[in-house]
């Protein structure tokens, strides 16, 4: 078992181009099943949105290829999107 605090210490990396996507700031969980749907990352390419809030990137759980000791490897797809969450 792994804790959210442990996941937040791992950097998320795209295996498609080796790009660093950022660090986990939140999770999206299906309340009916208790399963993780997506990881929410702080977008490392933006300094802040309209009101100084950084944009967030959603990585679906099914995109995760491997959770290692230091990084989480993901395969980006058309499902990935940048979100401006309230």
Automatic annotation (TrEMBL):
Annotated signal sequence range: none
InterPro entries: PRC-brl_dom, PRC_barrel-like_sf, Spore_YlmC/YmxH
Any Pfam family matching the protein: PRC
Domain PRC-barrel residue range list: 1-81
Domain of life the protein comes from: Bacteria
Protein name: PRC-barrel domain-containing protein
